[in-house]
Amino acid sequence: MRTRIFLAFLLFFCFMFSSLFAQTVLFEKPLSPRIANYDIDVRLDAEKYKIYGKEKLRWVNKSRNTVRELQFHLYLNGFRNSESTFMKESGGRHRNYKFEGDGWGYIEVKKIAPENGADLTEKMEFIQPDDGNPEDKTVFRLPLDRPIAPGGSITLNIDFEAKLPQPPFARSGAWKEYFFVGQWFPKIGVYQNGKWNCHQYHRNSEFFADFGVYNVKITVPNENIVGATGILVNITENEDGTRTHYYHAEDVHDFAWTTSPEFVEFTEQIEDVKVRLLLQKDHAAQAERHFVAARAAISFFQKNIGDYPYPNLTIVDPRRGAQGSGGMEYPTLITAGTFSHIPSGLRMPETVTVHEFGHNYWYGLVASNEFEEAWLDEGINSYVEMLIMDKFYGPKGSIIDLFGVKLNDLEMQRSQFVQIPDIDPIVQPSWQYYSSGSYGVNSYQKPVVMLKTLENYLGTETMFKILHTYFERWKFRHPGTQDFIQVANEVSGQDLSWFFDQALFSTAKLDYSVRGIRCKKVEKPKGYDYSLLLAADSLEEKKAEKDSFVVENDTLKSEQDSTEKDSKEFYESKVYVRRLGDFVFPVEVEMVFDNGDTIRENWDGKGYWKKFTYVKPAKLVFATVDPDNKILLDINLVNNSKTRKKSSAGINKITSKWLFLIQSFLDEPELLNLFSILMSIS
Amino acid sequence: MIWQSLKYGISQVWGNKRLIAFYYLLNLLLAFFLILPLHNVLNDFAGRSLMGAKLAESFDMNLFFELIHEHGDVLSLWMGLVFIGAIVYWLSMLFLSGGILHLFIHEKSGTIASVLGNSARYFPRMIRLSLWSLPVLGILLSVQFIYSGIQRLIFGSDPYQSVLYWGAWIKVALRFIIFWVFVVIIDYARIHLVQNDERKTRKSLLAALRFVIKNPGKAFGLKALLIVSGIFALVIYNLLQIPLSNSAGAGLFVLFFIQQIYMIFRSFLRLATFSSQAELYQDAESQERIDNAEEILLAV
Ligand SMILES: [Zn+2]
What we know:
The complex is a heterodimer.
Chain A: H1 2-21, E1 36-45, E2 50-60, E3 67-73, H2 85-90, E4 93-94, E5 97-98, E6 106-114, E7 125-126, E8 139-148, E9 153-163, E10 173-175, E11 178-181, E12 187-188, E13 190-192, E14 195-197, E15 212-221, E16 225-228, E17 231-237, E18 242-252, E19 257-260, E20 264-270, E21 273-279, H3 287-304, E22 312-316, E23 329-330, E24 333-335, H4 348-365, H5 375-392, E25 400-402, E26 405-407, H6 409-419, H7 436-458, H8 460-474, H9 481-492, H10 497-505, E27 512-521, H11 534-545, E28 548-552, E29 555-559, E30 571-579, E31 587-593, E32 598-603, E33 609-616, E34 620-625, E35 641-643, H12 649-667, H13 675-680
Parallel strand pairs in A: 1-15, 21-22, 22-24
Antiparallel strand pairs in A: 1-2, 2-9, 3-8, 3-12, 4-5, 6-9, 7-8, 10-11, 11-19, 13-14, 15-18, 16-19, 17-18, 20-21, 23-24, 25-26, 27-30, 28-29, 28-33, 30-33, 31-32, 31-34, 34-35
Chain B: H1 2-14, H2 17-46, H3 50-54, H4 61-107, H5 112-155, H6 161-195, H7 201-214, H8 216-241, H9 250-299
Helix pairs in contact in B: 1-8, 1-9, 2-4, 2-9, 4-5, 4-6, 4-9, 5-6, 5-7, 6-7, 6-9, 7-8, 8-9
The structure holds zinc ion (ZN).
Zinc ion binds next to helix 4 and helix 5 of chain A.
């Protein structure tokens, strides 16, 4: 009896004990390989913009090699001084924001030691695998005393201290009471193909990391609100007027957090995702705009791409003066981009929210290498962003719908692509592009236009199936460009390498043009021995049999025609189509005649030009290559068609409108004053 | 007095309808001259493309961006041309103001030739007056910096974006008011100059300042009436243009017609401003003279 009571007591004690220390579990079965797992205790010194961290990293060697050294990122050292690779490449500029003043940031590893092992701090060595810049301290290697065998693991205890850039620059930093803490802790690289993939921090590059479990305890002043990757486990009050917010995340490959006493909080359940919005006070009126965009994005992705496995999403609105931390993605936490009183016809807040949420799929779940193949994340994500924006806010004016000016997402993306279509290929290490403009076009806009062209070529259903298959197959893994191509080939049932070779790996420009159209009446043959002219003879014969026929590259091709049988006058119409770029893509060519007849021809585009000749009892009115406007990669759509006669109605309409604008401007130049309102919100 | 001046001014302009046509045509011709290069560029670029033809239905952003890409340098040259055009227009307005005011003050009705002749006579002084007025404009414009200072004082150096947003509206309104105050002063300075054939433009400027300070209600009241009618016309124009803005063919022609009616009204308004302000100034001055005479009589 006594034993029973004792046993019951013991069981009860064990239960209490275990529940106190039990780890929160999100997923019964791990969704990812969980290679890099972090427990971090971090304390914020809000006055000094500093953080002090104690990190316990458990790294598992899932490779087939014995690992003798580790490599780590220290991203915040990109802002350590003007000589870092990031600062040298950027000249202190990132996305329209300039790094000014004295707000340098840094990170220092105070101590690094394996659990139950000797202190290795002295063995740390900064390396610069990408550019050899000795001043760059964003990557270090750590030789190990004891190598890690395949299947083995190591647990390291790391003490670090970091200062956040002020104001936030290139995603991370602090401004007044607002902190956005990203790329903030010593982070292990990815061991891949027998070596470390651990690049320096560059101006034009994002990140690459392994999945794992994160337990992060964030200590901040009492009044502060905290948002972070993962779910909130608990908040404990400390005696020194601070609170510790404990966050837990599983199967993610990064962790970011933010804190400010000023956030206004909104929450909404969207499908199976709890969305939490942390807005700045003077943006509180825009909560619904963010939620509408989040609803559009979440429902589109869950319906067409795949399940969002995490229970929540946090959207953080950066403080005024801290927009350098805006428009960025982290697992289950994204940052917004908006301004006070932004008109509803300027959909910047919506676009940013849709875009950054999408990254949770193409960066968060499908963890491609953003250093080396940025398009796999930014490009595919921008393409889906475009689909969502143009579907939910379009088809016209999905991005701008203001004062009669309408611009949709696809047009916006294409407009940037056509400005610099051929400096670099899409697939290239991020820091090796000609310029940040070229990095942008090749990582964002050209992939959008390319994927839209592919969608039009394969059909929307097939395209969605490709994205869905790619996502399902590669989530929680590290795919490369070839993996995407393989999925596309497999799903479409065709070898698309002819397309991807040109679109992804070359700078070939795609430009088809109707260079000329001619139309003249067919005259009776004149002169000597005309009966020897085969064409003329056969023309007469054919005329007798059929109403019209096509002469195509010297071969005669007859065709049925519906024109009136009693038509007497015949016209020879010629269409000259040229391929002006090196990009070969099969095209349709459409000819429209003045009796309403329409002829569509297919051209594989392989030659440099193609001539189409028709003899019909009707005159050619116009000819168009790609009449359905499917090939968005074509850098010049204006030259895709040619009309036989000049059509001035459209141009007259535009010029008459502009005439009035100029008349008004001359008469009342003071009205330009009103434009300063638009300037004030941007 | 305001109503009387306005009524008189309007009737005077009505009696010189050729002037309205002259003003309107000047605006139209210059605008036409400025739009021509753009029309030609567009015509060469898309005149034989279906995309150009489809502009009749709706504006095509792809065409717009390709135009910028292909002819960006031509377009920026064109923007420069429009800017120069604006300066030329302003100078010709300045040139004509002397002749027009001379007509309204001294002749009541006259020919375009006489207006041009008188314009030439006053033009050097009008230029000098404009130069003298620059410091006045500078002083007036500094008011908006006072606002910025007040904003900083109340909201500090780190205001909410909404403060900046509403501040921008307040500054826009301030700039409009400053501009109108400035224009009123300059208008009366020109009237003084023409009425008294004043050689020293500084004197005219001071006289105008004195007049505006003495008669703010009348001076700004009349201007306000004219501004309000301008805004009223703009509102009516906008109501009419919205249903037509996307039309082609006949609708476009109707739109063009409405636009030109609006511009003719603007020309009329500009002239009515001159004539009624001149009338107001003369009235107020003769009233002052009578008052002074009475005072002298009383004193005697
Ligand atoms: Zn992105």
